[in-house]
Write a structure and sequence with these properties.
Layout: H1 3-10, H2 12-25, E1 30-31, H3 34-46, H4 51-65, E2 69-70, H5 72-87, E3 103-108, H6 115-128, E4 133-136, H7 143-156, E5 160-161, H8 169-182, E6 187-191, H9 199-216, E7 223-229, H10 235-246, E8 251-255, H11 265-273, E9 277-281, E10 289-291, H12 294-301
Parallel strand pairs: 3-6, 3-7, 4-5, 4-6, 7-8, 8-9
Antiparallel strand pairs: 1-2, 9-10
Helix pairs in contact: 2-3, 3-4, 4-5, 5-12, 6-7, 8-9, 9-10
Length: 306
């Protein structure tokens, strides 16, 4: 299955909702008036594209087609082009700097977002590029997270720095950076805790992890990635805000796009935060996390062929 076909299948729930709703509004041609624009805006909002972005997209459509007879395909093509324009500046793969050894990537996200799996998939990806990789099990509160990372380590043949449950996460991060430096490792991926129930505690811990990493390498972490589960829809905005309070988030990874009708949230986040979207996940397989393509995503979202 090609990546485009996989993306199409993964975004099926979201694009199905959008295309069916637009199709219901435009049976044949219809004059694009205020009522039609309002209904289209509603379609976009219910797909989690967000109020502000939905208003922007319908305003763009009105600028070129207001008062004209249009069909559903015209509408979807226009939306796809305008969504691609919003996404293009943020479609940036995660690039490892060969001058940094290690290039330290801190990975954040709430429990259940697919954070640990994402780390495993990134490890496999960088290893495939011929880079040496090390993992650090910094979510020291969950036995499952530590075990899961160790399984990925075994599967990929990558060393994993881990401690017992409840160990100090900052101390572990410090040791991991030290060891990666000594072993001349190219990429160090550090997992972190994601308990939002105690927001204050989580923020303090993340801040401490960053402070301690800087003691070993003042320029690190070189990337701080937030992993977001697309099925949470608009709640993703609050998660970005929360983690941005504690650490300098430099980019996003969106997971579970194959399990949701809320895939439009990627567009809303790009439009609001302008943070790079490094990769998207549309499945459980190790190769189902891929660099983000603005055009492919936009066309699939609107149910259009390549």
């Amino acid at each position: 299955m090609s990546w485009f076909a996989k993306l199409k299948a993964g975004l099926g729930k979201t694009s199905g909702r959008i295309t069916n709703s637009i199709g219901a509004l435009f049976t044949g041609k219809r004059r694009l008036d205020d009522a039609a624009l309002e209904e289209l805006e509603e379609v976009l909002i219910t797909s989690d594209i967000g109020v502000t972005t939905a208003a922007k997209l319908t305003a763009q459509l009105a600028k070129t087609r207001f008062g004209q007879e249009v069909g559903e395909h015209d509408v979807r093509e226009t939306f796809a082009a305008d969504i691609a324009a919003i996404l293009a500046p943020v479609a940036q793969p995660l690039v490892i700097n060969p001058a940094l050894r290690p290039h330290v990537v801190l990975v954040c996200g709430v429990n259940g977002s697919g954070k640990t799996t994402t780390i495993g998939k990134l490890a496999k990806h960088f290893q495939g590029e011929g880079k040496s990789v090390m993992l650090a099990a910094g979510d020291t509160f969950r036995a499952a997270a530590i075990e899961q990372l160790q399984v990925w380590g075994e599967r990929t043949g990558v060393p994993v720095i881990a401690r017992e449950i409840g160990a100090d996460a900052a101390g572990l991060a410090y040791d991991a950076v030290e060891q990666a430096k000594q072993k001349n490792i190219d990429v160090l991926l550090i997992d972190t805790a994601g308990r939002l129930q105690n927001k204050k505690g989580l923020m303090e811990e993340l801040e401490k992890v960053v402070r301690v990493i800087k003691k070993v390498d003042a320029s690190a972490p070189h990337n701080t990635i937030l992993v977001l589960d697309a099925t949470v829809g608009q709640n993703a905005h609050a998660q970005v805000e929360t983690f941005k309070e504690a650490v300098n988030i430099t980019g996003l990874v969106m997971t579970k796009l194959d399990g949701t009708a809320k895939g439009g949230v990627v567009v809303a986040l790009a439009d609001k935060f302008h943070l790079p979207v490094h990769a998207i996940g549309v499945g459980e397989g190790v190769d189902d996390l891929r660099p983000f393509s603005a055009r492919d995503f936009a066309r699939n979202l609107m149910g259009l062929e390549d």
